[in-house]
């Protein structure tokens, strides 16, 4: 099977130290496998996107020598694909309309004696499932995937090892199209990965928790499941994941090779910088080291 990987940033601002680690890991994995590396701009959450951030991200990647093997794609231009996927799920009974708000869901669990923390995951209790009466006289606000009774997913992460999640118990039927009409991340990423032929997903560890949901959605749509590797996170001073929300600064690319070296160190790739070396030299050495890991992984 031909290797096709991707880096899929959200244009909520320029790349920062954390997002560079994910970008570099995905690029190195593609190069070590002698595969294809794509860039997809994940801009379906339009209210969070910053005008011009997509172009800035592509410019930053170019400065770092991380150039995709095909023109970038934008999720905001792929709505017809998501419409088709949702229509298929609705037609075969795998998706249904939901009228519940977050307050409705929180009230349900409070009535059960379970007061959820303000920012904790609200497990959807299936209130609008057809077998429970459906919408009744209410209007659908969102569309959800109807999980199978057996929703325990076991999968293997190339870095984190064996993973296990009971999606029914920990998440419940999850949203495919939001109440504001925007496409949910889970549907968009699954459809895009399949349509682009992505064989290997390399992304930040903060997204590992989404994988079980995406596997269930892949199964519902009869789509292949890629190989997954979740790269280590860069942490802020407070121990939280470095992100734009907690003040992550845009990459300083006055010295692109220094930025790559810093990201490489997070990935366990540390090379002494020698006078006169160029970005291409550093990337070649990093690719060689990553390929050695891949070969070791194949032998284990």
Automatic annotation (TrEMBL):
<feature type="binding site">
    <location>
        <position position="42"/>
    </location>
    <ligand>
        <name>L-glutamate</name>
    </ligand>
</feature>
<keyword id="KW-0030">Aminoacyl-tRNA synthetase</keyword>
<dbReference type="InterPro" id="IPR014729">
    <property type="entry name" value="Rossmann-like_a/b/a_fold"/>
</dbReference>
<dbReference type="GO" id="GO:0008270">
    <property type="term" value="F:zinc ion binding"/>
</dbReference>
<feature type="short sequence motif" description="'HIGH' region">
    <location>
        <begin position="9"/>
        <end position="19"/>
    </location>
</feature>
<dbReference type="GO" id="GO:0005829">
    <property type="term" value="C:cytosol"/>
</dbReference>
<keyword id="KW-0479">Metal-binding</keyword>
<dbReference type="InterPro" id="IPR000924">
    <property type="entry name" value="Glu/Gln-tRNA-synth"/>
</dbReference>
<dbReference type="InterPro" id="IPR020058">
    <property type="entry name" value="Glu/Gln-tRNA-synth_Ib_cat-dom"/>
</dbReference>
<comment type="function">
    <text>Catalyzes the tRNA-independent activation of glutamate in presence of ATP and the subsequent transfer of glutamate onto a tRNA(Asp). Glutamate is transferred on the 2-amino-5-(4,5-dihydroxy-2-cyclopenten-1-yl) moiety of the queuosine in the wobble position of the QUC anticodon.</text>
</comment>
<feature type="domain" description="Glutamyl/glutaminyl-tRNA synthetase class Ib catalytic">
    <location>
        <begin position="6"/>
        <end position="256"/>
    </location>
</feature>
<comment type="similarity">
    <text>Belongs to the class-I aminoacyl-tRNA synthetase family. GluQ subfamily.</text>
</comment>
<feature type="binding site">
    <location>
        <position position="124"/>
    </location>
    <ligand>
        <name>Zn(2+)</name>
    </ligand>
</feature>
<dbReference type="Pfam" id="PF00749">
    <property type="entry name" value="tRNA-synt_1c"/>
</dbReference>
<dbReference type="GO" id="GO:0005524">
    <property type="term" value="F:ATP binding"/>
</dbReference>
<dbReference type="GO" id="GO:0006424">
    <property type="term" value="P:glutamyl-tRNA aminoacylation"/>
</dbReference>
<feature type="binding site">
    <location>
        <begin position="6"/>
        <end position="10"/>
    </location>
    <ligand>
        <name>L-glutamate</name>
    </ligand>
</feature>
<protein>
    <recommendedName>
        <fullName>Glutamyl-Q tRNA(Asp) synthetase</fullName>
        <ecNumber>6.1.1.-</ecNumber>
    </recommendedName>
</protein>
<feature type="binding site">
    <location>
        <position position="185"/>
    </location>
    <ligand>
        <name>L-glutamate</name>
    </ligand>
</feature>
<dbReference type="InterPro" id="IPR022380">
    <property type="entry name" value="Glu-Q_tRNA(Asp)_Synthase"/>
</dbReference>
<feature type="binding site">
    <location>
        <position position="203"/>
    </location>
    <ligand>
        <name>L-glutamate</name>
    </ligand>
</feature>
<keyword id="KW-0862">Zinc</keyword>
<dbReference type="GO" id="GO:0004818">
    <property type="term" value="F:glutamate-tRNA ligase activity"/>
</dbReference>
<feature type="binding site">
    <location>
        <position position="98"/>
    </location>
    <ligand>
        <name>Zn(2+)</name>
    </ligand>
</feature>
<keyword id="KW-0067">ATP-binding</keyword>
<feature type="binding site">
    <location>
        <position position="128"/>
    </location>
    <ligand>
        <name>Zn(2+)</name>
    </ligand>
</feature>
<feature type="short sequence motif" description="'KMSKS' region">
    <location>
        <begin position="241"/>
        <end position="245"/>
    </location>
</feature>
<dbReference type="GO" id="GO:0006400">
    <property type="term" value="P:tRNA modification"/>
</dbReference>
<keyword id="KW-0436">Ligase</keyword>
<keyword id="KW-0547">Nucleotide-binding</keyword>
<feature type="binding site">
    <location>
        <position position="100"/>
    </location>
    <ligand>
        <name>Zn(2+)</name>
    </ligand>
</feature>
<feature type="binding site">
    <location>
        <position position="244"/>
    </location>
    <ligand>
        <name>ATP</name>
    </ligand>
</feature>
<dbReference type="InterPro" id="IPR049940">
    <property type="entry name" value="GluQ/Sye"/>
</dbReference>
<keyword id="KW-0648">Protein biosynthesis</keyword>
């Amino acid at each position: 099977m031909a290797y096709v990987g991707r880096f899929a940033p959200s244009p909520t601002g320029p790349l920062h130290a954390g997002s560079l680690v994910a970008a570099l890991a995905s690029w190195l994995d593609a190069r070590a496998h002698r595969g294809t590396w794509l860039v997809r701009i994940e801009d379906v959450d339009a209210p969070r996107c910053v005008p011009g951030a997509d172009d800035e991200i592509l410019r930053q990647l170019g400065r770092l020598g991380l150039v995709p093997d095909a023109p970038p794609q934008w999720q905001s231009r792929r709505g017809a694909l998501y419409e088709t996927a949702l229509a298929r799920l609705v037609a075969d009974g795998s998706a249904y309309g939901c009228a519940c708000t977050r307050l409705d869901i929180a009230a349900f669990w409070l009535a059960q004696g379970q007061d959820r923390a303000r920012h904790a995951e609200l497990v959807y209790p299936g209130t609008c499932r057809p077998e429970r009466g459906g919408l009744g006289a209410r209007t659908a606000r969102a569309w959800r995937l109807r999980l199978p009774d057996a929703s325990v997913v076991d999968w293997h992460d190339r870095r984190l090892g064996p993973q296990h999640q009971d999606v029914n118990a920990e998440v419940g039927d999850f949203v495919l199209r939001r109440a504001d009409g925007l496409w949910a991340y889970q549907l968009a990423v699954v459809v895009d990965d399949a349509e682009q032929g992505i064989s290997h997903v390399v992304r930040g560890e903060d997204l590992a928790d989404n994988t079980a949901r995406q596997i269930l959605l892949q199964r519902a749509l009869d789509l292949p499941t890629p190989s997954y590797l979740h790269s280590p996170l860069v942490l802020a001073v407070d121990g939280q994941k470095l992100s734009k929300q907690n003040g992550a600064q845009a990459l300083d690319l006055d010295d692109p090779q220094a930025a790559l070296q810093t990201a490489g160190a997070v990935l366990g790739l540390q090379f002494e910088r020698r006078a006169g070396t160029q970005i291409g030299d550093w990337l070649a050495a990093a690719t060689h080291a990553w390929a050695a890991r891949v070969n070791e992984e194949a032998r284990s």
